[in-house]
């Protein structure tokens, strides 16, 4: 984890390490699958490495841009959003961490997210819906949650882990778009079929691996934000207000922000949720509130 005043979480560090290790193994299997499908020749190895390396480089350096585009967000200056920058400045000073870029998304969906490859190359974004529906203290609590993701570096791990799923998805699309062409490899199986099968297996493994980490990291961020601000009830209030707006938001607005749902502060309903339930998050905050009250 990055050195900051955000509460450290040994469970999060362990899970990030396991996720990176297992994801690395899956990625090796993915590269071997591409190589085998291409005929197991030296040229296939080079091509597999170029494909995987190129996608990894793109995801690493442009993950923040991709997430911001998915949310329709843009970076704002202190002159354009003085109150928002003031909140971020105060939290970064309190947490003793580098200030990320600050972005704004003009969408009615109340949410926020943080992304980037490192604390020095990160961005924290809030939406118009969030600023309209929450009190300043509640916005501050949400920002503390997002900044803890940056400080804990779980945003970086999510960025790296997401590469495997991207490559696997491309392999599956190759099969679908080519219509299962029957050009065979050395074992007589259609190349596209091999790519499809490997892609499906790898995608499913990566999918569940990321979601297990994602659910825990949200609880860790809630805890770190509550302890930094000293007000778990404020974060709980923000969660309840955001949850209450879900049923009143047009579905088209929710669909527009779905592209960065795994990075967002709150997830608006999903069969395979990347976030823990609202009840679980509120229960944890209630326990933290009780612990803090006994200390004073």
UniProtKB/TrEMBL annotation:
Residues that hold Zn(2+) according to the record: 145, 149, 218
Main location class: membrane
Domain Peptidase M48: 78-288
Residues of the active site: 146
Subcellular location: Cell membrane
An MF annotation (GO) of this entry: metallopeptidase activity
Keywords, ordered alphabetically: Cell membrane, Hydrolase, Membrane, Metal-binding, Metalloprotease, Protease, Transmembrane, Transmembrane helix, Zinc
CC cofactor: Zn(2+)
E.C. number(s) listed in UniProt: 3.4.24.-
Residue spans crossing the bilayer: 12-38, 44-62, 155-177, 189-210
Cofactor binding note of this UniProt entry: Binds 1 zinc ion per subunit.
Pfam family, one: Peptidase_M48
Top-level class of the enzyme under EC nomenclature: hydrolase
CDD domains assigned: M48B_HtpX_like
Topological category with respect to the lipid bilayer: Multi-pass membrane protein
Source taxon at top rank: Bacteria
Keyword match Transmembrane: yes
HAMAP family: Pept_M48_protease_HtpX (MF_00188)
Recorded family membership: Belongs to the peptidase M48B family.
Name of the molecule in the record: Protease HtpX homolog
């Amino acid at each position: 984890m990055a050195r900051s005043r955000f509460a450290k979480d040994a469970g999060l560090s362990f899970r990030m390490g396991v996720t990176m290790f297992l994801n690395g193994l899956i990625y090796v299997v993915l590269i071997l699958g591409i190589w085998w499908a291409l005929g197991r020749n030296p040229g296939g190895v080079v091509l597999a490495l170029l494909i995987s390396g190129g996608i990894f480089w793109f995801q690493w350096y442009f993950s923040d841009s991709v997430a911001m585009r998915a949310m329709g967000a843009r970076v704002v200056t202190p002159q354009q959003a003085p109150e928002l920058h003031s909140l971020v400045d105060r939290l970064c000073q309190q947490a003793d961490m580098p200030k990320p870029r600050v972005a704004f998304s003009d969408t009615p969906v109340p949410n926020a997210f943080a992304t980037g490859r490192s604390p020095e190359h990160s961005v924290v974004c809030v939406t118009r819906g969030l600023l309209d529906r929450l009190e300043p203290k509640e916005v501050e609590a949400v920002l503390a949650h997002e900044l803890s993701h940056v400080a804990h570096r779980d945003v970086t791990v999510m960025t790296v882990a997401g590469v495997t799923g991207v490559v696997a998805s491309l392999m599956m699309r190759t099969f679908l778009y080519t219509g299962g062409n029957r050009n065979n490899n050395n074992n007589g199986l259609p190349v596209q079929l091999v790519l499809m099968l490997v892609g499906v297996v790898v995608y499913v493994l990566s999918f569940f691996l990321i979601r297990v980490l994602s659910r825990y990291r949200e609880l860790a961020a809630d805890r770190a934000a509550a302890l930094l601000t000293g007000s778990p009830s404020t974060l709980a209030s923000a969660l309840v207000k955001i949850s209450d707006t879900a049923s009143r938001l047009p579905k088209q607005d929710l669909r527009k922000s779905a592209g960065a749902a795994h990075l967002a502060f709150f997830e608006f309903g999903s069969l395979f949720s990347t976030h823990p339930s609202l009840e679980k998050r509120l229960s944890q905050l209630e326990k933290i509130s009780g612990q803090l009250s006994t200390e004073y």
